Every structure is written in C-alpha cells, then in structure tokens.
Amino acid sequence: MFAGYDAHARINDAMLFYLRALSNVGDIVLTLDCDLRKDEDKKLVGINRLLHVQAGHHGEYDFGSYKRGFMWAQNQDILKSYDYIYFVNDSVLGPTTDLESVLEDVESFNTDIVGMFYARDSWVSVPENIVPNHVQSWFIGVKSNVACAQYFVDFITNIYRQNNKADIIKNYEAGWTALLTEHGCNGATVCAGDMNFDPYRTPQLLLQNGVPFIKKTALKLLTPMDLHEYVAPDLLTIIKKNHLYKQKKWQRIKTVRMGRMKILTLKQRIGTNKTKWFLFDCIPLI
Fold this sequence. Notes:
With about 290 residues, the chain is an alpha/beta fold. The protein is built from ten helices and 16 strands.
C-alpha cells in the first residue's frame, strides 16, 4: 500500500523513482490524497506490478490512503496471496540502495511486524507530547495473517481525519504498534533509536546504518558530501530538484587560489551559529 501526496497534483520524479523500486520487490496499490492533473496518470505507464491507482483529496493523510488501499485489496481478496503486506508513504526520498536486499534481511527474522525504524522515547512538537515506542509508519509491514485478522481490519478501516499531527501519531502511528503488541505480535526493524538517533535529526546516521531512505524534512541536514557518498547519481539528480534541498543557504564567500588556479569556495549555513565549508559543492574543507 503506497500513500502519496503532491501539492501540485502531479506524479513527481521522486514518487516515480520510489514506485519503480517498489515494483522490483512486489505489487503496488497506489492511493493519493490529492487530485491529479490531466494526463499525469500517464507517467505511471510502464511501472510493473501496479495493481490499482486511486487519486482524490480525502484529508485523512497517509493513514487515510492506507485505509483506502487496504480496503481495495480486501475487496479483491488478494491479501492472503502475500507473505507481508507493506504500508509505505512518500514522506521519504529513496531508496538510496538496493531495497530487495534490505527487505530480505529484515524479513529473515520471520516476525509479525517489520519496518525501517523503531522510535523510542520520542515526542511530537514539544517534550510534553510523549509518544509511546513504535515502528514508524512511513515504512511498515505486517504478515498477511495479521493483516487479515479482524482486530487489524477493524483498526485500519476505522481511520478518520484527526485534528493535528500529534493526534495522528498517537492514535494511528503509535496506536498501530500498540494494537499489534497487545495481540502478541513481535517485530524487527532495520534500525531503532531515540531522539538522538532518528530519521528527522540524524539522517546521515541512518544511512550509515542501513536505512535506505531520507526523510524529506531532514534533507536540509545532509551535507553534499553525505549525499554523494550514500545516494546513487540518478536519485541525487532528483534530490537536488527538491525544494527542501534548494532551501539550503549557500553563499559564495571568497575565491581561493591553488597555484595559478582559482577555485570557488562555498559556505553553507547550518542553524544560526554553525557553518560548514565546501569546495565544488561537495568536498568539505573544514
């Protein structure tokens, strides 16, 4: 189940890249929480194993798209045909490496739940909004027998619009893991961490530890060197077009000489007091 959204009602390049990667490892049910411009769906022609596409603003965000995709698959009576049913969304860029090998590794634990990241001791917006430990819902899979269990069906088919992001995370993202745990499910993820090691604050550490995705909101924290080291050239081209990457504040600060050759030196602002220096947009100087 792939949940997507585009503010401009388009099938963007990053989404296409992700869908093509997913088509190499399984069938896809695509649900968008937005309308699509005329002929945008033609971009999907050629993506193998794309079973179904539905687009239209519903206002229930990714979980509302998960619900709609799941209900379509349930009506088609195909859920039992798979080992795992995955729920993924386009809040990330990637995959940066071969996704099949990553899934093979995490599925080898033969657990009821699999995912990319298990969040511990986290909070939303302010420290008072403590969130129970949970598998983050931007990439989570459950065994087909779990997906077909009545308690799971009741949960996912009764998803409704929430008032704010904190309620979505508490009621649905963390609530999902709590429900599965309550029913005796065990799980495995590629990584686990707390507020000092998570996709939003330390994206480079997750890349180093085998998570092949970058949270879009964390893109501004990655240096050009990080991207060149961990991201394949075709995905790197897409990332550099992303508006969050373009928001990086680069400044030309001086021209330095190496012998008779002039070399442009750049400075990137990070936060209010920290700066990093780069040569040729990718080689760190300091």
